[in-house]
Amino acid sequence: MLKLIVFIIGVNLSLVPWVQAELNISITGYVEDAVPIAVVPFGWKGKGRLPGDMAKIIANDLARSGQFKSMSRNKMASRPQQPKEVRFPEWRRLGSDYLVIGHIESSTVDRYRIRFYLFDVVRGHQVAAYTIPIRPRVFRKAAHRIADIVYEKITGEKGAFDTRIAYVTVEKKRAGGNLYRLKIADSDGHNAKTMITRSHSIMSPAWSPDGSKIAYVSFETKRPNIYIQEVATGRRQRLKAFKGINSAPAWSPDGHKLALVLSHGRNPDIHIYDVRSKKFKRITRHYAIDTEPMWSKDGRSIIFTSDRGGSVQLYEVPIAGGRAKRLTFEGNYNARPRLSADGRYLAMVHRERGDPDFQIGVLDRQDDTFTVLTNGKLDESPSFSPNGRMIIYAASGPRSRGLLAAVSVDGQVHQRLALQKGSVREPAWSPFSRHSGK
Predict the structure, then answer these.
(1) Model confidence over 348-378: pLDDT tens digits?
(2) Whole-angstrom Cα distance, residue 408 to residue 250?
(3) Exposure of 143 by Cβ count < 10 A (0-12 exposed, 13-18 middle, 19+ buried)?
(4) 164-429 in CATH: which number?
(5) What would the mean pLDDT of 22-49 be, rounded to a whole number?
(6) Phi, psi angles (nearest 5°) of residue 112
(7) Cβ(379)–Cβ(359) below 8 Å
(8) How many CB atoms lie within 10 A of CB 278?
C-alpha cells in the first residue's frame, strides 16, 4: 500500500462576504475516450452535518472537464471507505477504470481530516493516498484540490478545478439604467463574491499572475479609468488617467507591468505601465487603432488587435522595439487575443468572410493550424484555463441575455454557465491557486 501523503489546504480570508452560487453549469459534450471513473460517497465520523457532499463535488469537477465520465451512485454495488473493502472485479464488471474512495472525520472542534484513495481498477492496484487536514470553511476548496490530484494522476497534466473566474454581471434597475458588478467565483460557479458594484460599465478584468489582484476598466467617473484591486482586501488604486481612452489592461508574466491602451485624445496605441516605478512606455505608433494587448509567454513581445492592414487582425511587436508582425490570415476579423500558459495556443474572436456571426477560434502556433471552436452568433472575450485545456468565453443567450460558456481547446467539450438572473460577460480565468501551509 502507498504511504499516505499529508498536505494542508490554505485560504486567504476576504473582507468581502461570500454568497451562494449563481452560475449553473451544464455539460454538452465529452471527449470520445472519456475515462469511466467512480467516486464513492465519503464516509463521515463526527458530530453534525458536513458543509457539503465532497464526493459529489469531486465527481462533478471531473465530469466538467469532459475527460471523465462519473458513475451514477445508483449503479454502485458497494460503497467502500477503506482500501481493504475494495473488490476490483466488482468495479470492473461495472465498467469503471478508476475508483476514488475516502472518509472524513472530525479531528478537533473546528478541523476535519480527509483521507482519500485513488485506484486503477483495470490493473487492480492503488495509485495514490492522501490525508488532508482542513477547516470547514475551505471544504469545497479541498474537494477541488482532490479533483485536481485525481485529474493529474490519471491524465499527467495539472487540473484547474481549484481556480477561480472573474466576470461582470449586468442587471436592470427598477428605476432605470443598469447595475454592474465585478465578481469572482470558484471554477464551478460556487462561492461567488462581489468585488465592486457600480451604475456604470465595468470591463476587461485581468488577473495578476499570482492571483492576488485584478486590473479592470470602470466608467464610474463617466470616463474609462483603469483600476488595480486586491482580491483579499478589496483595496484598490486608480492608474493615472489620461485624456481619451484608458483601457484593456493585461499583466506581464512577472506581474511587474501592465500592457494597456491609451489614446491621449488621438489614435489608440499600446503602452506599458511599470507598476513599481509608475512610468509609462509607448510601444506602438500608428495611425490605425491598436488595442487589446496580450503578453507573450516570455514577456518579450505584445500580441494585439489592429486594423492597420485594412481588416481587424492580430499582430505581434517586440517591446524592445521593431516592426509588428501579422499573425492571423483566416477570415476578415480576428480580435481579443488570449494566449495559453505554455504559449502554444492563441485564442481569439473570429469571423469568416461573408458571415455576420462571431465565434471563438484558436491558432495552434506549433502546428500553424487554425480551428473555429464555437458556432454562436456573438461569442467573445475568450480566456484560457491555467492548464490550457479549456477556454471560457461570453456568449449570447435567449433574448440577447449574456451568458458564459466554455469549450475545450480541441472543440470536443462544451459547457454553458448561466446566471439565475441578469446577464454575464467579460470572463477571465485565474492562474493556478497557490496552496499555503496554513
Answers:
(1) 999 998 889 999 999 999 999 999 999 999 9
(2) 23
(3) buried
(4) 2.120.10.30
(5) 82
(6) -115, 155
(7) yes
(8) 9
Domain ranges (residues) in the chain:
5-155, 164-429
The neighbour count for residue 99, using CB atoms within 10 Å, is 25
Which has the higher per-residue pLDDT, 438 or 304? 304
Q: Which of 302, 270, 265 is nearest to 286 (CA)?
A: 270
3-state helix, strand, coil in the chain (%, to 5): 10, 45, 45
Cell of 193: 463574491
Q: What's the pLDDT tens digit per position in 292-338? A: 999 999 999 999 999 999 999 999 999 998 999 999 999 999 999 99
Count of residues making up the chain: 438
How far apart CA 273 and CA 261 sit, in angstroms, is 10
Task: Return the sign of the alpha-carbon dihedral for residues 351, 357, 358, 363.
Answer: negative
User: For residues 385 and 431, what is the distance between their CA atoms, to the nearest angstrom?
Assistant: 8
Contact 81, 42 (CB under 8 A): yes
- pLDDT at position 3 is 39
Its pTM surpasses 0.70? yes
| Fold for the domain defined by 5-155 | Rossmann fold (3.40.50)
**pLDDT the model gives residue 438:** 36
The grid cell for 417 is 454557465
* Angle formed at CA 417 by CA 137 and CA 338, multiple of 5 degrees: 95
Burial class (CB in 10 A: 0-12, 13-18, 19+), 382: buried
Q: Distance (Å, rounded) from C-alpha 101 to C-alpha 313?
A: 50
Kindly state the cell numbers that stand for 122.
Answer: 483495470
The cell numbers describing 331, all together, are 477570415
Instruction: Give which of 427, 318, 409, 411 is closest to 365, Cα–Cα.
Output: 409
Q: Which of 100, 83, 102, 85 is nearest to 43 (CA)?
A: 102
Q: What are phi and psi of 184, to 5 degrees?
A: -130, 150
Residue 83 has pLDDT above 50, yes or no: yes
Angle, helices 139-155 vs 54-64, to 10°: value is 50
